[in-house]
Amino acid sequence: MAPALEVADIFRRHGEAFQQSHAGHLGRVERRVMGAITACRTAALGGHVERCDDCGLTRNAYNSCRNRHCPKCQGLVRLQWLAARQAELLPVPYFHVVFTLPAPASEIAFQNKATVYAILFRSAAETLATIAADPRHLGAQIGVTAVLHTWGQTLQHHPHIHCVVPGGGPSLDGTRWIACRPGFFLPVRVLSRLFRRLFLQGLRDAFDAGKLRFFGDLAGLAQPTVFTARLRELRRINWVVYAKPPFGGPEQVLAYLGRYTHRVAIANSRLIGLTDGKVSFTWKDYRHHSKTKAMTLGADEFIRRFLLHSLPDGFHRIRYYGFLANGGRRDNIARCRHMLATKSADARSEIAHGNSDQQFNASDFVICPECGGTMQRIAVIPRSSSHQPFRCDTS
Question: Most exposed of 9, 30, 246, 363 (fewest Cβ within 10 Å)?
Answer without folding.
Answer: 9
